[in-house]
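// run 5 | inverse folding | seed 20
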């Protein structure tokens, strides 16, 4: 069935060409028109040229166009996928991370949680709201998917401003479970049933069982996972092989050239290990993400491993920015499958979607976006009820509600006071004066993006 699929932020080779590549592989979209949109005309043209050439060379039943005019691009859209960043990604992320540290706020990373997550949100959510305003006016029946971070704060703010949009957040972090669980449990993925839940980048494996026997597999996860991760000294190299498509030896050479530490046991998983051992549940992501939300993470994590992750991610982005191939990505694999599920009324369960908490997690507030499994059918995506989280995990996550609530308020009202309150309620922030000085400095340094706060 022919669809009009709009990719916003398509000038990114990883997102644009990756998602296009996955759409090309899926028969559900044959005959569809893909619209590429980006504010960077040069990057947009490059992605459009590569995609058009691929269609012609392989005689694919697709058409593709490109437009820097968002309103034009959205005309008649049935699906809209958003994956954008604002400004110089790493320059601004460095400020999000380092400026709070200057005032003694011990955040371990600066993308999604903590003060860095606030400033990232204050910067990126307004343009996403503008995109959603156009969608509401031009193609209100379209299914809208967001890949941008900070996922939870973006989705919470958007769904408050535009509650009628079919807006869902998607993240590839859940892919760690299909990767690791078969190795930990020594059984094929086809024999494992699992579900996870929480907040994006702050989610845990909640239940896991063997399909052949119906037996609860969590006791085996708790018993075997620590040794599994501790015995992986080449884990970081293996991950970077996925990033840059080089051999582990070539990756180690890149590490050495950049002055990065060599891979070692439990890379970026010291907090992960504590959560598993002391709370009894396995995080689905690494310390750099999970630890942004935990006030005592600074004393637990391997800071060098997190820095190495950050630098290797910069390397990956640099290499992919010059990619000239139409390939799939984690994001594309997920979004193509989900959109096909809607088109074909597949009625299957997607392991992680970000949706407003309409009772899906009973002991978290209902007006925050949560990450839970979701069923996919012709009407879209519907969250799965997970009951109540374990008390300890619920306690960790509950600390974030007021922070996300006030982040949304600060953005929607332009309130500097609400932004300061969001900082003061963040468990990572230790000092009123540090919070106030950090906010004032960030508004001055990033005034182009944060100057709307009054």
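// decoded
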């Amino acid at each position: 069935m022919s669809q009009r699929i709009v990719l916003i932020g398509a000038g990114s080779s990883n997102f644009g060409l990756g998602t296009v590549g996955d759409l090309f592989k899926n028969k559900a979209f044959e005959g569809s028109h893909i619209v590429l949109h980006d504010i960077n005309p040069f990057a947009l043209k490059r992605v459009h040229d590569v995609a058009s050439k691929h269609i012609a060379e392989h005689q694919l039943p697709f058409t593709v166009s490109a437009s820097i005019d968002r309103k034009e691009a959205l005309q008649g859209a049935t699906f809209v996928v958003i994956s954008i960043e604002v400004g110089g990604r790493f320059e601004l992320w460095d400020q999000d991370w380092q400026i709070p540290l200057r005032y003694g706020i011990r955040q371990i990373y600066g993308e999604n949680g903590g003060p860095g997550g606030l400033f990232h949100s204050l910067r990126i959510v307004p343009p996403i709201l503008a995109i959603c305003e156009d969608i509401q006016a031009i193609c209100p029946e379209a299914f809208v998917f967001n890949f941008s971070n900070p996922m939870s704060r973006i989705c919470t703010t958007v769904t408050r401003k535009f509650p009628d949009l079919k807006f869902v957040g998607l993240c590839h972090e859940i892919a760690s479970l299909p990767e690791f669980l078969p190795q930990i449990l020594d059984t094929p993925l086809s024999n494992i049933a699992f579900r996870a839940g929480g907040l994006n980048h702050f989610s845990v494996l909640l239940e896991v069982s063997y399909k052949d026997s119906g037996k609860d597999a969590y006791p085996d996860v708790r018993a075997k996972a620590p040794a599994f991760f501790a015995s992986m000294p080449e884990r970081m190299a293996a991950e970077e092989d996925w990033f840059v498509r080089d051999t582990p030896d070539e990756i180690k050479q890149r590490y050495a050239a950049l002055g990065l530490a060599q891979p070692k046991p439990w890379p970026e998983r010291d907090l992960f290990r504590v959560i598993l051992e002391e709370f009894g549940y396995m995080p689905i992501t690494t310390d750099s993400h999970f630890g942004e939300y935990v006030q005592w993470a600074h004393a637990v994590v391997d800071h060098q491993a997190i820095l190495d992750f950050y630098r290797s991610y910069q390397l990956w982005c640099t290499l992919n920015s010059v990619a000239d191939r139409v390939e799939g990505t984690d994001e594309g694999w997920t979004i193509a499958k989900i959109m096909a599920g809607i088109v074909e009324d597949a009625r299957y369960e997607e392991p992680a979607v970000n949706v407003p908490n309409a009772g899906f997690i009973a002991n978290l507030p209902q007006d925050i976006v949560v990450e839970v499994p979701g069923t996919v059918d012709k009407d879209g995506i519907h969250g799965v009820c997970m009951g109540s989280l374990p008390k300890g995990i619920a306690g960790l996550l509950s600390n974030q509600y007021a922070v996300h609530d006030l982040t949304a308020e600060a953005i929607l009202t332009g309130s500097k006071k609400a932004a300061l309150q969001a900082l003061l309620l963040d468990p990572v922030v230790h000092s009123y004066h540090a919070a106030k000085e950090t906010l004032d400095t960030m508004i001055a340094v990033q005034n182009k993006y944060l100057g709307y706060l009054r």
